[in-house]
Every structure is written in C-alpha cells, then in structure tokens.
Amino acid sequence: PLVWAVIPSLLFGAVHFANGAGVSVAYGLFYSVATGLIALTCAVLVWRTGGISAAMGLHFANNVGALGLVGAQGDMSSTQLWVWEVESAVRSSPLELALLIVMLAFVLSPWGPFQNRSAKDAPSGTSPGSDR
User: pTM, whole model, 2 decimals?
Assistant: First the structure.
C-alpha cells in the first residue's frame, strides 16, 4: 500500500500545491493536503472494490464541486457559482480536511459497503480489476 497508494497520493497532492499557492501559501497547503486525501481515498476505493469505477465517480464529483460549485477567490473563480474569500476558505479548511479524513476512514472501515475483492469473487471471464 505504501508503494501503490500512499506515495503516489502524497506526490499527487504535492504537485497540486501550485494550484492553490497562487492565491496564498496557506491555501496552497490546504489544497495539496485535500488533493492528497482525495487521491488516497480513490486508491483505497480501487483496492476495496476491485475496479476503477467508484474512484472515477468520486473524482468526477470532486471536480464538479471544486471547479463548478465552490472555490476560493482567485482560484479559477470564474468557473464557480459560489466564491469564498481566501481567508474564509483557509479558516474552514480544518473542517473540510476532517470531513475528507472521515470519508477515507469510512472507505477503509469494515462497516463500509466496499469489500475487498479477490479473483474468486470476480464474475466469470473478468479479472478483479476490470469493470465488466
């Protein structure tokens, strides 16, 4: 998991720092941590479901929210319906990060709807990683 989930998620979050740092350094840090948590959640979804579809759905929903609905002023704000002041976005970042951590914990929990799939669980003629 360190090689296929944690390191790529950390790197993915780190390269997104510049997207938010143009607004402020604090917002850039929040943006990169939030992106890393979403990436890690997507990696866990692929692992838990045996396919990429759930991760694609989460990624799509996240991008619709981030690019089309809500964002910080100066961060692609011409595409979003609601724009927050940067200071408000940074102040609310602990709550958003906590919600992302809860989402990751839910996906990882044994009570979540996602169970690890093995080759014996896959429909005939498919592999556990395929979405057929």
Answer: 0.80
Q: Convert the pLDDT of each residue in 15-74 to its tens digit.
A: 999 888 788 899 999 999 999 999 999 999 999 998 999 999 999 999 998 888 888 787
Other CB atoms closer than 10 Å to residue 49's CB: what's the count?
A: 20
Neighbouring residues of 46: CB distance < 8 A, sequence distance ≥ 6: 52, 54, 55, 129
Torsion angle of C-alpha atoms 109, 110, 115, 118, degrees rounded to 10 = 110
- DSSP alpha helices (H): ranges in 16-130? 17-21, 25-49, 53-63, 86-91, 93-108
Residue 83: partners with Cβ closer than 8 Å, 6 or more residues away: 70, 71, 72, 73, 77
